[in-house]
Amino acid sequence: MVVIQVSDRLELQAPYHPVLPHRSKQIGGLWLGAGIGWSFPHSQEEALRALCLDIWGVDGTRAAFEDTVEIKVTVDEQVPYRRVFEAAEQPIYLVGREIAASLRSRRGARPGRGVRFMSGNPRCIALPSIWLTTIPNGAVFLVRDVPISALDRFRDDIGGAGHVEVLGSP
Prior knowledge:
3 helices; 4-stranded antiparallel sheet; alpha+beta; single chain
């Protein structure tokens, strides 16, 4: 995810996130297709960078991605209503990253890009009127290329629902 300054606009090249279209349009964003991404007027740079911080935990500068680490997440969501590692009719996202998504057939789930499950694979639970993407307690997964500046956001978003360990040196 990066904000690029072009002569007449700002361009946001970013992976899909469910809130991105609505939030982008609120600040004057226009979708120009997969090759370019979202386009914004220069006057909205501050709002665009705030949007990036809110979704991805970084401001969209290339410098934010110069120092990255791999993290290991252990799921331990011991509550009756799961808020972090279960999503109704959509993928599971953490800090703007798709962690797991149900297959279109609703017969299973897959990890997101840059995510590798070590144990406890994601699942799709198909109920009569709804389907859920879920990651079971005890699951362990790795997330590659996490900007160091976004580590605290990962920890905050996971909260008491699991444990985050940085692999290697931050």
